[in-house]
Design a protein that fits this description.
heterotrimer; A alpha+beta; B mainly alpha; C mainly alpha; B: mainly alpha; MetI-like fold; 14 helices; globular; C: mainly alpha; about 80% helix
């Protein structure tokens, strides 16, 4: 096992940042800790690195209990959100730092350090900038130097705190793909923290969704996205329409009288409040009524969302507008526009009961 | 940057008027006194000036002043760095109280700064008389001058470093630690290079004040010529003896020094600002 | 989040060492010596203390120190405002030099400033001769003391006001103009309220410094009993007579005054920070 966390708890005064977190990460995996800001994910990362200490629990890295080891002896690579490059050292010196501070008997020879740093900088495509100082680099370049610096010490695990948050959208996209490729090459067990679901879905082998210091769900991106364990996860992973509904005798009633068949696990409930979630692209739009449960809606707004078209619909019996996403092609073929009346099908409704907050 | 953007500047007439007012203020409060020092110092010619500066008592005063600065500045620099480290890298109860206490000497009149050491170690106090029996003299002697100067220049370095280190945060130090660096290494390789201009700046202010301090030193010195006279005290003695030319000649040394310090300060401040811009 | 960033700081080394040394050095150089003033007055007993600090000469010196510092601070507020306004907003040759010279009163030894002003305003001095001709008393009068204190205090105002003035976004004024305000209205209703906290901080700093000022004042003051003796000088003369208790008593009152100023200053600075965010 690459990383094992057992019952990690951390409190700041009265506030519980991490509440009994247990987690295993297989060797060589790239795992995303996904959650809203303030959910405790960064604290968890810092605890794994030894930058913070847990109140209780155990951290096992590569089968060795490192809970109380100082960060220096943990052998983790940590990439800070704002990179924390040493501003008085050039790129080469930054990457070489971790090797130069090794105890004399473990320290490689000067020429070896040089080779290793050059190799790493080639790996992150920054070998052209060895003599530059951090202030002379762009955000994406700093990010890659920070990564090379963290990798220089051959870390057992690599930890990245919001690695792309300080970059603009286009660079972020590029760097994301690049990081995935790099990881496939070097296969070091890695955890990164993010609040961006797209990033997590695209990049990670596994996703751990955290909220309020607890793990809500973990699994592959596919599992988490297709089978969210609860309302929070569903809501957090992408845009969604939320309806308040009542579950009664095997049916879920949305709005005033729209009936949807209840999922199996809720079939036996006699009567309960619930919430129903529908992704915008799981909403069918049609000019012709396909079955009796279709809603009649009016398009109140049309928005261009890159390749897709976003519609805002007012449907009979619903007091909140419904968001739908359709292809441009369908939009054109149906000759849709603001004010048009259409039939609306809720293709895939996910219902959760119980409390949830965002 | 500001010049390019500021399109809403005042009308020309107002600008001229205000600038003239400012120049008038500078003229009467800065330029005239500076000119006066040199005119008085040189009014009897180079020879007399050099004579006054080369006077053995003056040379002794210069020596004592430099010795004092050489002891005081490193001590307060080490303290300033230590205090700034404790205050900016950790959190603890009573932090703001500690910060206020560090500034305390600024709020104390120089005369009181001298007085407290007379009260502590003067020959009439228990500590002073005991030390006297051991043959150690603090007040009216060099140690007294040093310690009073330590007091008045106490906050300078810490005061420069604390805001600087607060703005720099701890991330670079933490990064160094995750990369395997040990405590001293982190300080020497990461923190010190990051604060060097601020440290130098604080030390320069500290030097300036320790050379120029008058009130506190005048209380503890005893004004013994050639022994416990610093440069400012020498200026005072010559002045009170109506030896104005010599007094201003010695004063001109201090004026030179302070002009240089003001100049260096301006230069370092530029570096400083550039740094803080880089930070963002 | 605040609490999160707080605990971040535990992993760095050296807390015990740096904190221990800080407290030790602070106690040795500042706290213990300063407490001597309190200890010495404790020995005195109440009546002698009251006698010492309410003797007419001492009272007159407090009054003088306080009022001279007050008037100097008021003047500094105006002059400092003017200087920072011109230095920040106008461009003219020699501006950088003037900017650097603001620090001169910080760097110039007070004794040198003292003899300069005393000579400048002596009846035969460059400026004193005019004062003499027009029968304006400057040397050996409170006016002279105020002049010396103006010099000492004005960098405090400039150096606190300057950064605030520099960071003032032009958009603030521009939006006022766009809304139809005149230049004077914008100054009065937008700029002045924005700058006032910093101005007050600067003036308070100048005032606090001036109350205890010694070197630059004694030469021009003439030190006439009841007329131009400042409070620090009273301490000095009591010390010269080996009246340690009396000196401590006068010093204690001055110290308490200074600490009160420090408290006021903290309040003003809090207000300034709140006003600017």
């Amino acid at each position: 096992m690459g990383i094992e966390l057992l019952n990690i708890t951390k409190k700041f005064a009265a506030y519980t940042a991490l509440d009994n977190i247990s987690l295993s990460v297989a060797s060589g995996d790239l795992v995303a800790l996904l959650g809203p800001s303030g959910c405790g994910k960064t604290t968890l990362l810092r605890i794994i690195a030894g930058l913070d200490l847990p109140d209780s629990g155990k951290i096992i890295l590569e089968n060795r209990d490192t809970t109380w080891l100082p960060p220096r002896e943990k052998n983790v690579g940590f990439v800070f959100q704002h990179y924390a490059l040493f501003r008085r050292m050039n790129v080469f010196e930054n990457v070489a730092f971790g090797l130069k501070v090794l105890a004399r008997d473990k320290r490689p020879a000067k020429s070896e350090i040089k080779d290793r740093v050059e190799h790493l900088l080639k790996l992150v495509q920054m070998d052209w900038a060895m003599k530059r100082y951090p202030s002379q680099l762009s955000g994406g370049q700093r990010q890659r130097v920070a990564l090379a610096r963290a990798l220089a010490v051959n870390p057992r695990v690599l930890l990245l705190d919001e690695p792309f948050s300080a970059l603009d959208a286009k660079v972020r996209q590029e760097l994301r793909r690049w990081l995935r490729k790099l990881h496939d090459e070097i296969h070091v067990t890695s955890i990164f923290v993010t609040h961006d679901q797209e990033e997590a879905l695209e990049l990670a082998d596994r996703i751990v969704v955290i909220n309020k210091g607890r793990i809500e769900q973990q699994g592959t991106p596919q599992e988490v996205y297709d089978h969210p364990a609860n309302a929070f996860v569903y809501n957090f992973l992408g845009n969604v329409n939320v309806f308040h509904g009542r579950i009664r005798n095997g049916w879920v009633i949305l709005g005033e009288q729209h009936h949807v068949e209840a999922p199996d696990e809720l079939k036996n409930l006699e009567e309960k409040d619930g919430k129903a979630f529908v992704r915008p692209y799981e909403i069918g739009i049609s000019r012709i009524q396909s079955n009796g449960s279709d809603l009649l809606g009016t398009i109140t707004d049309v928005r261009l969302l890159g390749g897709q078209i976003g519609l805002e619909l007012e449907c009979d019996g619903f007091n909140t507008p419904i968001e739908a996403e359709i292809s441009r092609e369908l939009f054109r073929n149906l000759e849709l526009g603001r004010g048009e009346k259409v039939f609306v099908t809720l293709n895939k409704v996910k219902v959760f009961t119980g409390d949830y907050e965002i | 940057m500001i010049d390019n953007r500021r399109k809403n500047s005042d009308p020309a007439a107002v600008q001229v008027l205000l600038t003239i007012l400012v120049l008038l203020f500078y003229f009467s409060f800065i330029f005239l006194p500076l000119a006066l020092v040199f005119s008085q110092a040189f009014q009897k010619g180079w020879e007399i000036y050099l004579e006054a500066v080369r006077d053995p008592f003056t040379i002794e005063a210069v020596k004592l002043t430099l010795l004092t600065a050489a002891i005081v500045v490193p001590l307060n620099a080490v303290f300033g760095v230590t205090a700034a480290w404790a205050i900016t890298k950790f959190n603890f109860r009573g932090k703001s109280t500690l910060k206020t206490l560090l500034d305390l000497p600024f709020a104390v009149s120089p005369v009181i700064a001298g007085l407290i050491f007379v009260l502590l170690a003067g020959s009439r106090t228990p500590l002073g008389s005991w030390l006297g029996e051991q043959g150690i003299k603090i007040i009216f002697s060099t140690p007294g001058i040093v310690i009073a100067t330590l007091f008045v220049t106490f906050p300078f370095v810490a005061r420069e470093l604390i805001p600087l280190m607060e703005s720099q945060g701890c991330e670079e130090e933490e990064a160094a630690i995750t990369l395997g660096a040990r405590g001293w290494h982190v300080f020497w390789k990461i923190t010190l290079p990051n604060i060097r201009w601020g440290l130098l700046y604080g030390m320069i202010l500290c030097t300036a004040r320790s050379i120029g301090e008058f009130g506190a030193v005048s209380v503890v010195s005893g004004h013994i010529r050639g022994q416990t006279n610093t440069i400012p005290l020498q200026v005072e003695i010559l002045y009170s003896e109506y030896n104005f030319t010599a007094s201003f000649a010695v004063a001109s040394l201090l004026v030179f020094l302070s002009l240089i310090i003001v100049l260096i300060k301006g230069l370092i401040e530029k570096k400083f600002r550039k740094n803080s811009i880089q930070l963002q | 989040m605040a609490s999160l960033t707080r605990k971040k700081r535990t992993i760095l080394p050296g807390f015990g060492l740096s904190m221990g040394y800080t407290v030790f050095y602070l106690s040795a150089i500042v706290i213990v010596p300063l407490s001597m003033v309190f200890l010495n007055t404790l020995h005195m007993g109440v009546q002698p203390f009251i006698n010492a600090v309410t003797s007419p000469r001492v009272l007159a010196s407090y009054k003088l120190s306080f009022s001279a510092a007050f008037f100097a601070a008021i003047f500094d507020a105006f002059a400092g405002f003017l200087v920072s306004w011109v230095l920040v907003r106008y461009r003219f040759p020699g501006r950088k030099l003037l900017d650097s010279l603001v620090d001169l009163p910080f760097a110039l030894p007070t004794a040198v400033a003292g003899i300069c002003f005393a000579t400048l305003y002596s009846p035969v001095g460059w400026l004193g001769q005019f004062a003499d001709k027009w029968h304006i008393g400057i040397i050996n009068t409170p006016t002279g003391i105020v002049i010396a204190l103006i010099f000492i205090g004005f960098p405090f105002v400039v150096r606190t006001l300057q950064p605030v003035l520099e960071e003032l976004e032009p958009e603030i004024e521009e939006s006022a103009y766009c809304l139809g305000a005149t230049r004077l209205q914008t100054f009065r209703k937008i700029l002045l309220p924005h700058l006032f906290p910093a101005l007050l901080t600067g003036a308070t700093l100048a005032f606090a410094r001036s109350i205890g000022e010694y070197g630059s004042v004694i030469f021009i003051a003439g030190n006439l009993p009841m007329k131009t003796e400042i409070a620090p000088l009273m301490i000095m003369s009591k010390l010269d007579q080996f009246d340690y208790a009396g000196a401590s008593a006068v010093a204690l009152v001055l110290l308490l005054l200074s600490f009160a100023m420090l408290l006021v200053l903290n309040g003003v600075q809090d207000w300034q920070q709140k006003a600017n965010h």
